[in-house]
Amino acid sequence: MKIRAGFVSNSSSSSYVCDVSGEAFEVHDDCFWDAGLCQCPMGHVFQKKFLVKWERKYPSRDEMLSKLDEVTDSKRECMEFRRLTDSQLKQKYLEITEGYQGNNANVNECPICTMTFIKDSDLIKYMLKKQGLTREELVVQIRAEFDNNFPAFLGWIECTKKN
Ligand SMILES: [Zn+2]
């Protein structure tokens, strides 16, 4: 999650908060990877250590080549594609099919998109929906239950006994 733009006028630095840990990071020139972060296509930002292990399935070499041929009219370029190593070809294929830039995670690698991790804000939305309450209704309910006494409310929350 982006929190603010950088202060230095000639630098394109921005601050991001990891959607999983809540830690803040400076990102220069949109280089998420260099800052230790990944960003998924849904805009979730998270530390590399939270990447979900996922193995990308590639089509056959011939299928990747025919996909690449579709995007160029140049015979010379088609020839060049055929000289690429397997890993270069995969990289090129990703650039064309997903606009892959090397520093973005796929949705299959995102802890939030895969529901490996659920943000507190989403948990709250879920609980409210399940309870059929709006946020405001819940606030009114809690205030009444604890008579506007925050320590009592906190004590109840932190008490491990279920009731
Ligand atoms: Zn995501």
Summarize the structure.
With 163 residues, the protein is an alpha+beta fold. The protein has helices at residues 61-70, 75-83, 86-98, 120-131, 135-145, 150-158; strands spanning 2-5, 13-17, 24-28, 37-39, 45-47.
Structural account:
With 163 residues, the chain is an alpha+beta fold. Helix content is 39%, strand content 12%. The strands form 2 sheets. A 3-stranded antiparallel β-sheet has the order 1-2-3, with no helix packed on it. Strands 4-5 form a two-stranded antiparallel ribbon. It has 6 helices and 5 strands, in the order βββββαααααα. β2 (13-17) and β3 form a beta hairpin. Among the domains are: 2-53, no CATH class; 120-158, no CATH class. Zinc ion (ZN) binds at residues 40, 42, 44, 107, 110, 112-113.
Looking at this protein, list some descriptive labels.
single chain, 163 residues, alpha+beta, two-stranded antiparallel ribbon, 6 helices, binds zinc ion
